[in-house]
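Hi R.,

Here's the input for the D-xylitol-5-phosphate complex you asked about:
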Amino acid sequence: MQKYISPSICCCDLSHLEESVRALERLPVEYIHVDIMDGEFVSNYCLGTEFIPLLHSLTNIPLDIHLMITQPDRKLDYFAFSPGDIVSIHAESTFHIQKALAAIRARGAKAGLAINPATPVEHCKWVLEDLDVILVMTINPGFAGQRLVPQTLPKIAQARQLADTCGHEILLEVDGNVSFENAARMSKEGANIFVAGTSSLYCRTGTLEERCHLLRQAIEPNQSKAG
Ligand code: DX5
Ligand code: ZN
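And here is the predicted structure with D-xylitol-5-phosphate in place:
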């Protein structure tokens, strides 16, 4: 099962964005996680619509765009995302989940559905055909640096089980306090994409390369032994 690292760009040194992106390009990471927050769906503001084309102008690493905004189905055209990007909306943010997911795919991106800690995995059941990613929030979204909500861990295995009933591959993403220790457990439960924020890649110990290696070891222990 493929494992991908998606560094959370809102946790990098934004005052030196180009340098931070170049540093990520030197690492074995597969996506860049971009948190967009509107101050309404979550009580925080983070990055804006212009950030997407800016990042695309800086790097070829695909973006993993996490829309923490209300009524995303009405606002998709605000974001110039590219084919190959992942665009995740929240199940709690619109009455029109299937319509929003279909619209993301119609724009050439991979469609993701994010579920908050209290939202049942079953909310994904009737849109599996429209999904490429299920994003299991392992914290309450809005702020980096929070502690894992422990009851979200069993949801990862549940989401994996549900995703595996679908005829096409659905990746499982985890976002929030993905520490080295938590990442190992999340990987065992079936997660594929790991949002790397202040709990791992942007924590304070060692170098960025060392932290990335530690995270890779945690999520793919056998690979790392072989590698
Ligand atoms: C939180 C964000 C993430 C993440 C950051 O809403 O979606 O970017 O939490 O990583 P941590 O939790 O490790 O600081
Ligand atoms: Zn996020």
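One thing worth noting: Residues 208-219 form the longest helix (12 residues).

Cheers,
M.
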